[in-house]
């Protein structure tokens, strides 16, 4: 490890310690509900939120059943998006990799997730 890399690493660890002790605010914070990303804040200002991403998706109706596209626009991990949909990670992977196509209720669920992910998240938390 070079001295420069070590010094960068040391600075990062010291900064993390200061943030943890409350001596310094975090510059970037990702807010999750369970495994689902709902907001990204930089310097205490929201720079991205789940509803904003859904508004972007509503502008592209042709992609409403493309699981990978929806997940990426919503900035979710496969694990988080599978939790939002109530399906297994394996099922989601099969859809994304083209081994299976979502049909019937699954296709409808993807459409709802792309247009109203916040409401879908609310319904999960209420249940």
Q: Quote the average pLDDT.
A: 89
Structural class: alpha+beta
> What are the segments in which pLDDT stays under 50 over at least 5 consecutive residues?
none
Query: N- to C-terminal separation?
Result: 50 Å
Measured as a percent range, the helix fraction is 55-70%
CATH architecture of the domain at 50-126: Orthogonal Bundle
Describe the overall structure.
- It is a single chain.
- By secondary structure, the chain is an alpha+beta fold.
- The chain has a domain at 50-126: lambda repressor-like DNA-binding domains (434 Repressor (Amino-terminal Domain)).
- The chain has seven helices and three strands, in the order αβββαααααα.
- A three-stranded antiparallel beta sheet has the order 1-2-3.
- β2 and β3 (45-49) form a beta hairpin.
- α4 (78-85) crosses α5.
Task: Give the arrangement of secondary structure elements.
Layout: H1 3-20, E1 28-33, E2 36-42, E3 45-49, H2 50-58, H3 67-73, H4 78-85, H5 89-96, H6 104-115, H7 117-126
Antiparallel strand pairs: 1-2, 2-3
Helix pairs in contact: 4-5
Descriptive tags:
alpha+beta, 434 Repressor (Amino-terminal Domain), 3-stranded antiparallel sheet, 7 helices, elongated, 127 residues
